[in-house]
Amino acid sequence: MTNFNVAINRNMRKIGDMLGIPGLTFYSARHSWATIAANEAGVDKYHVHVALNHVDPMMRVTDIYIKKDWSILDKANRKVIDYMKRQKTS
User: What are the C-alpha distances in Å from 86 to residues 10, 29, 43, 54, 62?
Assistant: First the structure.
């Protein structure tokens, strides 16, 4: 498995160099994929977890891979504030 990972990372760095992305590794690609899948493409966390071949039933490792999208919480807070404003004027 070590030789496989070395080969993947060597070629990921080559691809990164061609694209102007220094230090691209398989690990960084997995993190990017998980964040894009969850935050942009709407893939649920369980399926991200399965795709990454994680075995932790609590999905704690998967949580590390997915960058937190605070805009979702910002929108939720805005909905609550707007709701409360409507209630005040009613």
Answer: 57, 45, 33, 44, 38
